[in-house]
Structure formats: structure tokens, C-alpha cells
Task: inverse folding
């Protein structure tokens, strides 16, 4: 058993943190600081040039050919160095739910068409699964895809789509056979300019302001026959694979954010004085910091364990992903709330940036399947359901 980084992992982890600290500082002329100005496309391109958008993608398709633990190490590094968690979420959402599924399930032609652009940042990907009446119960989706001649025709709506308003390519799910439930779901690649495809609206939200969320409409949207990813009626395994990647790895960057947050809290507990002494001398304050450190350490172990299991092809990876997601997201919210408490009013006001982590963290208990759904997955693994 070895808990240390390999040389390559250390390189990507440290280089990503340094890159983020120096290159992902958004200038005021470009909507800065951090995420005040919405999506920062130049920041996205910089991340792509650094290699983040295609880290686990094969080199022949424009990626860096790194394994999952190395990718997770880099994402943790960038989360540590970058305060624009919306930007980092956009990169993660595209990587785990569009780019990797294309690499795993796409035809050679689809890989050639999309992967180089997704890796070099000229294309931003988004995942279109949720509908207003199909969230946790995702396979109740009603977006319909029908084969007409040599085309697919899609009708329906998708909502809460991360990067929906600004993406270039969408991996969307629709039913090709409503009578077959989960076995009727198929996956399609949809370009932003596909006829009959429309961004309905941007949906304002609590946090991660650096990436917009949107609602999409398919109105007799016509796609070529080769827009289908995988086989007809075999979209669910593609969706499940993308969700497993998300659960296990999307919060690696949150580990970096929690580390930065913890360091700020330790510094504040040492330097802020009340009643003639540093507040860290009060046991209720130091206990709070200790609990934050404990949550971060357990979260880290679980994310790296998932990456390790997955890279070995271990079937335990799926439950490990659900456990990691549950642990990291709950820890992220709790640590962010503790940070606000520890800073007092300075934690509550916008100018210190402490409250932003709390707003950014809340979505993590909902996306990739709510934490109730993660518990259901783990309970099934324990043969309880
Ligand atoms: C920040 C963010 C980003 C997102 N990005 C995307 C995206 O890019 N693409 C996309 O397709 N979707 C996206 N989503 C949507 C997300 O996948 C759904 O919100 C999520 O699956 C939950 O569905 P829902 O919101 O409809 O909640 P509901 O399913 O209505 O759930 C409501 C409540 O009921 C509980 N519940 C429901 N069913 C069960 C059950 N069986 N057992 C126990 N409890 C249950 C839930 O846990 C929750 O507390 C995003 C959501 C957020 C918050």
C-alpha cells in the first residue's frame, strides 16, 4: 500500500496549482475578479492549453494520455489554485460527461470530429439529461427521438444544464422507444447549430457563477443518423458511466478548494485576537478547525481510492464513487459553513470571498444524483434494497 503521489502525479498536481495561481487570475478588464463576470472563455482556453480538458484522453485524439489518479491529482491542484469554481466545474462537467463518454463509446468518426476540439478548448461540452419531470427518476425522461429516413428527429426539453447557454456540443439523452423504459434511452451528440435546437433561457442560481446553467429545447430538431452514440436503446450505460466518473472524480477540485479554505481558517484562527488571545486558543474554535481537517483528509482518501479502483478496473469502483461523492459534498458544505462561522462577520460579507465557497458548495449535494440517491446506490451495494 502506497499513499504517496508518483512523480508524474506530483508533477501534474503541483504544476496545476501553480498554473491556476498565476494564469487563472481573471483581470478586471475581462470580468474579474474570480467569477463575477460569468463564464470566462479565455480562462477555459488557458486550462485547455495547460492540458486539463483532455488529461485522460488518448494522445492520438488530442489529449495527454494520463491515468485517472493523475487526472484527479491535477484537478485537486487546480481547485487549490483557482477561486473560480464555476470555471473549474465547466471543465469537469465537459470532461466527465461528454469527452470521456465519447472516448469510451463514440465511433472513430465521432472521436475524430469532437475530441480534438474538446481537448484544445475550441469546443465546450455539456450534458443534457435532466428534465423538469425527470431528475432523480432520470429514465422517466420524455424527450423523444424518432428515426425518419436517414435522420433522427428530437422533441422535448432539458433543464438545469451546466454550461447549457455557452456550450458548443451537447451529449443528450432521449427515448427512442418510450415503451421500453431504461432500455429505450439513446444518446445523441447535438451541435449548438443543429436545426430545431434552441437555448430557451439561462437559469440564475446560487453559486458557481462562473458557469451558466440553462434550459434547452428540441423542436423537430434534425440530427444526422451518425449523431447516435453507441447503439439505439443503449444510452443508459453511457449515462451511468458518465455519472460514475462525475461522482468519483468531479469533486477532486473541491478537495483543493477545501485545502485553501482550511489554510485560510488556520491563519485566521492564529491571527485574529479576541479577549486578548488568538481565537484558535479557544477550544470550540480549534475543534472546529480540527473537524474541517478531518473531513478534508477522509474526503481525499475516498476520491483517490475511487480513482485507484477505477484505474484497476475493480467493480468496487461504482460504490466507491457514490461514497466519495456523498462524503466530499457533505464535507464541502459543512467546511464552508464552518469557515463562515470561524471568520464571523468577515466570513459572511462578500469582500473576503469566504461566503462564496458556501454558495459554490451547495450544488454538490444535488448534482450527479442527489446524496439521497447516492445512499440508495450504496444501500443496494450492501444488499439492502
Ligand atoms: C449545480 C447543478 C448542476 C447540474 N448540472 C446538470 C447537467 O449538466 N446536466 C443535467 O442533465 N442535469 C444537471 N443537474 C440536474 C441534476 O442532475 C438534478 O437536479 C438531480 O438529478 C436531482 O433531480 P431534481 O433536481 O429533479 O430533484 P428531485 O428528483 O425532484 O428530488 C427532490 C428531492 O427528493 C429526493 N428524492 C427523489 N427521489 C428519491 C429516492 N428515490 N430516494 C430518496 N430520495 C429521493 C431527492 O434526494 C431530493 O432531496 C444539475 C443540478 C445542479 C444543482
Result:
Amino acid at each position: 500500500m502506497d499513499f504517496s503521489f508518483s512523480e508524474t502525479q506530483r508533477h501534474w498536481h503541483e504544476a496545476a496549482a501553480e498554473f491556476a495561481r498565476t494564469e487563472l487570475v481573471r483581470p478586471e478588464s475581462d470580468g474579474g475578479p474570480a467569477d463575477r463576470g460569468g463564464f470566462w472563455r479565455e480562462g477555459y482556453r488557458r486550462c485547455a492549453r495547460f492540458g486539463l480538458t483532455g488529461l485522460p484522453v488518448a494522445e492520438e485524439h488530442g489529449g495527454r494520455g494520463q491515468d485517472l489518479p493523475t487526472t484527479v491529482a491535477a484537478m485537486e491542484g487546480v481547485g487549490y489554485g483557482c477561486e473560480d469554481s464555476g470555471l473549474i466545474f465547466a471543465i469537469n462537467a465537459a470532461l466527465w460527461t461528454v469527452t470521456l463518454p465519447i472516448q469510451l463509446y463514440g465511433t472513430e468518426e465521432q472521436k475524430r470530429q469532437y475530441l480534438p476540439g474538446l481537448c484544445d478548448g475550441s469546443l465546450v461540452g455539456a450534458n443534457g439529461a435532466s428534465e423538469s419531470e425527470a431528475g432523480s427518476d432520470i429514465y422517466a425522461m420524455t424527450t423523444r427521438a424518432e428515426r425518419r429516413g436517414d435522420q433522427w428527429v428530437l422533441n422535448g426539453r432539458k433543464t438545469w444544464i451546466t454550461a447549457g447557454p455557452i456550450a458548443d456540443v451537447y451529449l443528450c439523452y432521449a427515448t427512442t422507444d418510450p415503451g421500453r423504459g431504461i432500455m429505450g434511452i439513446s444518446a445523441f451528440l447535438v451541435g449548438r447549430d443543429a436545426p430545431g435546437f434552441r437555448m430557451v433561457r439561462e437559469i440564475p442560481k446560487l453559486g458557481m457563477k462562473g458557469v451558466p446553467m440553462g434550459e434547452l429545447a428540441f423542436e423537430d430538431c434534425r440530427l444526422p443518423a451518425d449523431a447516435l452514440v453507441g447503439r439505439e436503446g443503449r444510452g443508459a450505460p453511457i449515462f451511468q458511466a458518465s455519472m460514475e466518473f462525475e461522482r468519483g472524480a468531479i469533486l477532486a477540485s473541491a478537495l483543493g478548494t477545501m485545502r485553501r479554505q482550511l489554510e485560510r481558517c488556520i491563519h485566521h484562527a492564529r491571527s485574529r485576537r479576541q479577549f486578548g488571545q488568538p481565537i484558535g486558543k479557544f477550544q470550540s474554535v480549534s475543534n472546529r478547525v480540527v473537524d474541517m481537517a478531518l473531513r478534508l483528509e477522509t474526503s481525499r482518501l475516498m476520491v483517490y481510492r475511487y480513482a485507484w479502483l477505477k484505474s484497476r478496473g475493480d467493480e468496487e469502483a461504482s460504490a466507491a464513487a457514490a461514497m466519495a461523492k456523498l462524503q466530499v459534498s457533505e464535507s464541502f458544505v459543512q467546511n464552508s459553513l464552518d469557515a463562515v462561522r470561524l471568520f464571523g462577520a468577515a466570513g459572511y460579507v462578500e469582500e473576503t470571498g469566504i461566503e462564496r465557497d458556501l454558495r459554490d458548495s451547495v450544488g454538490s449535494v444535488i448534482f450527479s444524483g442527489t446524496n439521497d440517491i447516492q445512499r440508495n446506490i450504496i444501500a443496494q451495494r450492501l444488499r439492502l434494497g
In short: Residues 93, 127-130, 135-136, 160-162, 363, 366-367, 369-370, 372-373, 376 surround flavin-adenine dinucleotide (CB under 6 Å).
